[in-house]
Design goal:
The chain folds into three domains: 5-124, Rossmann fold (3-Layer(aba) Sandwich), CATH 3.40.50.2300; 137-299, P-loop containing nucleotide triphosphate hydrolases (Rossmann fold, 3-Layer(aba) Sandwich); 304-432, Helicase, Ruva Protein, domain 3 (Orthogonal Bundle). It is 48% helix and 14% strand. It has 20 helices and 16 strands. It has helices at 13-25, 36-45, 62-72, 87-96, 108-124, 137-150, 166-175, 194-202, 219-222, 238-250, 276-281, 287-293, 310-320, 330-338, 344-358, 366-369, 375-378, 383-407, 412-419, 423-432, and strands spanning 5-9, 29-33, 50-54, 56-57, 60-61, 78-82, 100-103, 156-159, 184-188, 203-204, 216-217, 227-231, 252-253, 262-263, 267-272, 296-299. The chain has a five-stranded parallel sheet with strand order 2-1-3-6-7, sandwiched between helices. The longest helix has 25 residues, at 383-407.
Length: 436
């Protein structure tokens, strides 16, 4: 098997030697360059698996090299070496397409982690995920952006209305990048009570507070070597935002009751359906945290912005429901194409689940889709009510399933019969609603 090849760009001989020795112990061959011009020449003559470059070069800077690589050899991950505390320059490099950055003095453990992740990325390039359904122009742009940001380790903020599939996008970023084998830990910041959020995220030591009978790792530690997805980050209290900012900047975490910090190797992805920029202006969200989590922003289009995808999505959902009813008649197709879908993909999914459950025929018609009689009314409601529709329906379904399972002592076959569902339909809903 051919050894990976790395390009080291730095004008300091001691740094070049240290990097070459460190990578050599990782069984990685190295080529060195002293300045920008030499680096360009080497890049034109070799196929590298990673490039490590200092930000300050005698005849240019690292940002110029990052930009050149992104334009001419975009398959080569590039990590920049920055002066200690120079976060602004590092963020600028990430926006230009750098894979990651490491600060001086060099933390060799962190360096090895970055290089290892970059090599994994190079080895798996060309593999694409097909989980994101749709071929509309908006979705094609989104898929292209997912492919690009998956190569980086920069924080990504995913914006979009409720029900558009922001968590699915976050999972695809994880699965398309070098952290694919690591854990994906989703956290709904609005679902955890504010007084419990710190202990859930940071963990705690035995005796840190009343009830802390044992040590407990937090969600940050659980995401180590993987991805932490902070959903509805706009709901995070201001007091927690400053603590999260330190975690992102330092890649360390201090559990409650601990005197020492623990190193982390995580990528932060976040999402919300709210306007974070407006919240910053109103003083409801920290500006410094906003710029740290929003290094790269991905916008997930609403379903009404991708009309060409509605029928393809509907057919996919019907297949996934594992029902004998998999056909939409002409009236149903026309109804779906005309509907505004204020609840987005989640509304479409719930609409079809209801139609499959209540339909008396072999196909789904328009009357089956309008049984809920809320499609037109939803478009007249305020944005907040529309955004929360899917969550309310999910909550009702979850409660009904839990009650049925409790009544049948968790006999799923009996619970399905009680609910008027097939066993497969119940199993699908249990999985979808994350019912343990």
């Amino acid at each position: 098997m051919q050894k990976p090849l790395a390009l080291i760009v730095d004008d300091e001989p001691d740094i070049r030697e240290l990097l070459a020795l460190t990578l050599g112990r990782m069984d990685i061959k190295t080529v060195v360059a002293e300045d920008y011009s030499q680096a360009i020449t080497k890049l034109k003559n070799h196929q590298f698996d990673i490039c490590l470059t200092d930000m300050r070069l005698p005849d240019g800077d690292g940002l110029e090299l990052v930009a050149w690589i992104q334009k001419n050899t975009p398959r080569v991950p590039v990590a920049v070496i920055t002066a200690h505390g120079n976060i602004e320059t590092a963020v600028q490099a990430l926006k230009l397409g750098a894979f990651d950055f490491v600060s001086k003095p060099l933390d060799l453990k962190n360096l090895r982690s970055i290089v290892g992740n970059a090599i994994k990325l190079t080895n798996k390039q060309g593999q694409e995920s097909s989980q994101l359904i749709g071929r509309s122009p908006a979705m094609l742009r989104l898929k292209e952006m997912i492919s690009r940001v998956a190569r980086s380790q920069a924080p990504v903020h995913i914006s979009g209305e409720s029900g558009t599939g922001k968590e699915l996008v976050a999972r695809l970023i994880q699965e398309s990048g070098p952290r694919k084998e690591g854990p994906f830990v989703p956290v709904n910041c609005g679902a955890i009570p504010p007084d419990l959020l710190e202990s859930e995220l940071f963990g705690y030591r035995k005796g840190a507070f009343t009830g802390a009978a044992t040590d407990k790792a937090g969600l940050l530690q659980s995401a180590n070597t993987g991805t932490l997805f902070l959903d509805e980050i706009a709901d995070m209290p201001l007091s927690m935002q400053v603590k999260l900012l330190r975690v992102i900047q330092e890649q360390t975490v201090r559990p409650i009751g601990s005197a020492t910090e623990e190193s982390l190797d995580i990528r932060i992805l976040s999402a919300t359906h709210k306007n974070l920029a407006r919240m910053v202006q109103n003083g409801d969200f920290r500006e410094d945290l906003y710029y740290r989590i929003n290094v790269i922003e991905l916008h997930v289009p609403a379903l009404r912005e991708r009309e060409d995808d509605v029928l393809e999505l509907a057919n996919f959902i019907l297949e996934r429901l594992e029902s004998s009813i998999k056909i939409l008649d002409k009236s149903a197709r026309m109804r779906l194409l005309k509907h505004n879908f204020p609840g987005n993909v989640r509304e479409l999914e719930n609409m079809l689940e209801r139609a499959v459950t209540l339909s008396a025929g072999a196909t789904i018609s328009e009357k089956d889709l309008t049984l809920r009689q809320d499609g037109d009314e939803l478009s007249k409601t305020d944005d907040g009510a529309a955004d929360n529709l899917g969550e309310r329906i999910d909550d009702v379904q979850r409660q009904a399933i839990l009650e049925a399972l409790e009544k049948t002592r968790y006999n799923k076959t009996a619970a399905a019969k009680l609910l008027g569902l097939t066993f497969r339909q119940l199993r699908y809903r249990i999985k979808k609603l994350s019912i343990d």
